[in-house]
Amino acid sequence: MSFPRVIIVGCGFGGLWAAQALAKAEVELTVIDRTNHHLFTPLLYQVATAGLSAPSVAGAIRHILGDQRNTTVLYGEVRSVDPAKRIVRLENGDELGYDCLILAPGTTHSYFGHDEWAPYAPGLKTLEDALEIRRRVLSAFERAERESDPQKRLAWLTFVVVGGGATGVELAGTFAEIARHTLRGEFRRIDPQTARVVLVEGASRVLPPYPPELSAKAQLQLERLGVTVWPGRMVTGIDADGVSLGAERIACKTVIWAAGVASSPLGATLGAPLDRAGRVRVAADLSVPGHPEIFVAGDLASVEGVPGIAPAAKQMGRHAAKNVLHLLAKRATIPFRYRDYGQLATIGRNAAVVVMGKVKLSGFSAWLVWLVAHIYFLINFRNRLVVMIDWAWAYWTYQRYARIIMRGVKGSDK
Amino acid sequence: MSFPRVIIVGCGFGGLWAAQALAKAEVELTVIDRTNHHLFTPLLYQVATAGLSAPSVAGAIRHILGDQRNTTVLYGEVRSVDPAKRIVRLENGDELGYDCLILAPGTTHSYFGHDEWAPYAPGLKTLEDALEIRRRVLSAFERAERESDPQKRLAWLTFVVVGGGATGVELAGTFAEIARHTLRGEFRRIDPQTARVVLVEGASRVLPPYPPELSAKAQLQLERLGVTVWPGRMVTGIDADGVSLGAERIACKTVIWAAGVASSPLGATLGAPLDRAGRVRVAADLSVPGHPEIFVAGDLASVEGVPGIAPAAKQMGRHAAKNVLHLLAKRATIPFRYRDYGQLATIGRNAAVVVMGKVKLSGFSAWLVWLVAHIYFLINFRNRLVVMIDWAWAYWTYQRYARIIMRGVKGSDK
Predict the structure, then answer these.
(1) Is A92 inside any structural domain?
(2) pLDDT, tens digit, for every residue of B27-38?
(3) Which is more confident, A408 or B396?
């Protein structure tokens, strides 16, 4: 007797929580991801800013799911879904049939139609992205130290972060901390403290999804750390020598893109209705209209009032798995209801903002909530312990131990 | 008043120990390295085999030497030395003048005139090399899991290590451990335990610099771990599908080169006498014949009876620095004398070989000596602590936490 075949595409928060919810189910489960690891994305900015090593925020999917006897993990990339034939197609042409499908492929960067900006402004989605940003930021200080032309030196010491959401705020705050504290006294020709970190946001305030008073506090805390915050400005050009904001121009050699995300192109292969951001307009039970056997979880799902954050993806993943079981048992599926446990964003040393229902925190208390929550949710015990040691070390010494420039990770020095 | 200018090229064990010996000297010291980090090379194989993260075995040179007020650290590559003009030339054409020079650039891989083997058989010298090897080995198991052709699957599950010195023995032993223990139970279509690890050595026994009885014990311990040890065989060809050993052929997709090292090409730019391996035949005081103001330390120095290991490089670096000070004080320089504290190589779980004077150890006792020595000599407190936790974790769980395949680190999937 063979069990129904369930495929999960993507093993981020949505996919992994769905897979674990099916651990004991009588299904033949296949989990496909184009990386071999589940990534704890809320701490990815720490890898980019040399505070944590790459393995500290990632775990091998095969290992995490190794004890689930009903589960096969495949390292591969799903290129398209054929809902009529009920198959997914992999990058090498392999086809896999399913009885139920959970799509949780996540997002990618979007340069708002300006893909030519990509080489000059890497985004932060993968471990490779994080190592590339780490390399560029650390290399910029090294290049400045060797540069004799003052204009060029200034450009190497200017860092522009485009996008004032949680990732942008975290990166800008940490860049400022690196310049002011971590590198202090280690250069002879430049003073790293003169480095300029500019955070550009198109909306009228940073952290747009947060209450306005927390946005204001976040901006204040960023400025205290030394970040120049420029809300209400649109980027109109990015090239090897700087960023254009309409008539204004910032000469800089390092630009990080934290502005836009685009849904996985897999959504479009379904032939289902999409929203403006390319996300699938799912039914109340997270299924694809017209295809009750396909569910969508995480960033690819367009659900009114549900933010694109890890806790939401986990809830959707778990819910999609539950509905798969209902469907296979020929019971009615259940509408998804998002439970809002709040949102938090860190800004830098001792500074963060937290909103939980009516509770709004900022500053040190918010930072403590952030710290405990992030260590608590890290994937396994070992990582949690090592991350705690790394952070305690970094906190007292201002040092960041992962200050390793690895060449040739992607692209090359500008 | 300006102090004499001293340049140190390379910040491995030779260069770093020389730099630290000059910390309080009245010199204007410049340390140039083409990476931004000092690398604890004896543990690099652990990064390649997913046991440690890259930052665990590397420290930012700028940070290590940050408190030396007389020292400038430059991230750059010295391309040539002009002993007549007393300048070094950097990759961008910059020239730096010196009064005294210490050359400690280390080695690179040598494919014995077969550079065409390089893409198929990466060596292990840098962090990038280690991540590339990690990626290939972990990817090979993933490819095997997805391969339906039994012949091809076998090739993906065959790993050949060329060279039976310390690095080759360490890599082969750890690959076998990964196949037998780490990955156990995590695949559904292949059994990782059927993976074949072959260690090929041209000499008649592994670990040729060790006493024959230790070589025999090392081979025994490797075979117990599941490694096929093939001494006395020369590699005659390496391509995308396997390794040729004269008439014999091993079909395999993963080959690691641990066979040959070549001296830095900087030695040749000196116009000084070189030995067959391209190392500089230094005078008794480690200076270059005809150039008393240039000293050579570490792997580039050819000194009778001194092995190419970290403790020897450190001793030479410290000695070269001392002689620089003698020279500047117009005192006679001192001949270098190597103090032999022994050699050790690890083979795998609970297995190593150690030779210290007349003491020869193998097995568990040797492994304990190796463990204590390597943790003790790790560069700073934090790394030591994290490495200890990582290893304790790995020892009890058989797990290797750095099982992260990073794409595009260098080259691409075969």
Answers:
(1) yes
(2) 999 999 999 999
(3) B396
What is the radius of gyration, based on Cα positions, of chain B?
A: 22
| A395 in a structural domain | no
CATH number at residue A79: 3.50.50.60
Q: Are A345 and A352 in contact (CB under 8 A)?
A: yes
Give the helix ranges, DSSP H, for A236-352.
310-328
The answer, yes or no, to whether residue B83 has pLDDT greater than 50, is: yes
**Chain B residues within an 8 Å CB radius of A55:** 53, 401-404
Give me the residues of B, 20-79, that contact A with CB < 8 A.
35-37, 53-56, 58-60, 62-63, 66-67, 72-76
More confident residue, A394 or B341: B341
pTM of the entire predicted model: 0.93
* Residue A125 shares a structural domain with residue A177: yes
User: Do A54 and B406 count as a contact with CB atoms less than 8 A apart?
Assistant: yes
Residues of B designated catalytic: 170
The answer to whether residue B142 neighbours chain A at the CB level (below 8 Å) is yes
Closest CA to B341 of B369, B317, B299, B319: B369
A101 and A127 both lie in a single domain: no
Among partner residues A63, A405, A408, which is closest to B36 by beta-carbon distance?
A: A405
CB contact under 8 A, A55 and B94: no
> What whole-number distance in Å separates Cα of residue B102 and Cα of residue A134?
31
* Domain membership flag for residue A357: no
Q: What is the pLDDT of residues B169-182, one digit of tens each?
A: 999 999 999 999 99
Q: Are B78 and B9 in contact (CB under 8 A)?
A: yes
pLDDT in tens, B275-300: 988 899 999 999 999 999 999 999 99
Domain co-membership, A251 together with A267:
no
Q: Are strands B254-257 and B158-162 parallel, antiparallel or unpaired?
A: parallel
Query: How many angstroms separate the CA atoms of A80 and A75, rounded?
Result: 16
CA-CA distance, A167 to A165, in Å (whole number)?
A: 6
Chain A's closest residue to B37, CA to CA, is A404
What pLDDT is recorded for position B414? 33
User: What pLDDT, on a 0 to 100 scale, did the predictor assign at position A350?
Assistant: 85
Q: Where is the domain boundary, A259, A281, A313?
A: A259
Q: Show residues of chain A in contact with B146, CB under 8 Å.
A: 74-76, 94
- How many Å apart are CA A215 and CA B333, to the nearest integer? 66
Task: Report the alpha-carbon distance of residue A11 to residue A61 in Å, rounded.
Answer: 7
- Can you give the residue range of the structural domain that contains B150? 117-259
For residue B286, is it left (φ>0), alpha (ψ between -120 and 50) or beta?
Answer: left
Determine, for residues A55 and B139 on separate chains, whether the beta-carbon distance falls below 8 Å: no
Mutation pick from B404, B405, B409 vs chain A, by most beta carbons of A within 10 Å, is B404
Q: What average pLDDT does this structure show over A388-398?
A: 78
Residue B411 has pLDDT above 60, yes or no: no
Q: Which of residues 265-324 of B touch A (CB under 8 A)?
A: none
Q: Which of A219, A242, A259 is the last residue of a domain?
A: A259
- B215 shares its domain with B274: no
Q: Is residue B335 part of a domain?
A: no
Which residue is associated with the tokens 């260069």? Answer: B15
Task: Kindly determine whether residue B406 and residue A131, on different chains, have CB atoms separated by under 8 Å.
Answer: yes
